[in-house]
Design goal:
about 190 residues, mainly beta, L,D-transpeptidase catalytic domain-like, 15 strands, about 10% helix, globular
């Protein structure tokens, strides 16, 4: 089954956060927080910029943690018998389940896969780690997945904690580009 291919639709960027008719509403991105100081909170959400390949965990008060991500290859690929555009699409999602996959190369040493759903339907997209993460994160630009969002193991740990704290329904938005002026403080 294809587990990684692309992610967005129907949202408006306001102060660096995607607001849609069904999904996210939050304060502006106010203050960057270090990974050492980050503590997941109820109401957090994830924002992914697929142009810059940066992810943001965002607290309701606007504090955020930024981290590098790897997104879809931005071209047509042939993968596990299917041909499709591996560009990670822009979309508003809900992270709805945690699964363990047998493929420890694609899904990293733990096999963790945090699945994304769209409009109540499970999709083949999600967040996961990768066995050779140093190689994957050395890509320039970081378009190397088959559409999913690859994060380092330490970031996946934080995302999983945030998902659990938010009772298995973490809001996620992906978009191509975030205007840097939308961040309140630089």
């Amino acid at each position: 089954m294809l587990e990684c291919y692309a992610l967005f639709n129907g949202a408006t960027a306001i102060l660096g956060i995607l607001l849609s008719t069904t999904a996210l509403s939050t304060s502006p991105l106010v203050r960057a927080v270090s990974i050492a100081d980050w503590q997941p909170q109820m109401g957090d959400h994830l924002l992914v910029d697929t142009r810059e390949n940066e992810g943001y965990l965002v607290h309701p008060n606007g504090d955020y943690l930024s981290f590098p991500v790897v997104t879809g290859k931005r071209r047509v690929v042939r993968y596990i018998g299917r041909t499709y555009d591996a560009t990670t699409p822009a979309r508003t999602w809900t992270m709805t389940s945690r699964e363990i996959k047998w493929d420890r190369i694609t899904f990293g040493p733990s096999g963790r896969f945090l699945r994304l759903s769209h409009q109540g339907e499970k999709t083949p997209y999600g967040f996961h780690e990768y066995a050779h993460e140093d190689e994957m994160f050395a890509l320039a630009p970081r378009y190397g997945s088959m559409g999913c969002i690859i994060v380092r193991s330490t970031i996946l740990d934080l995302i999983e904690k945030t998902f659990n704290l938010n009772e298995g329904a973490l809001q996620v938005s992906t978009q191509y580009g975030i205007d840097p002026t939308l961040f309140v403080l630089h």
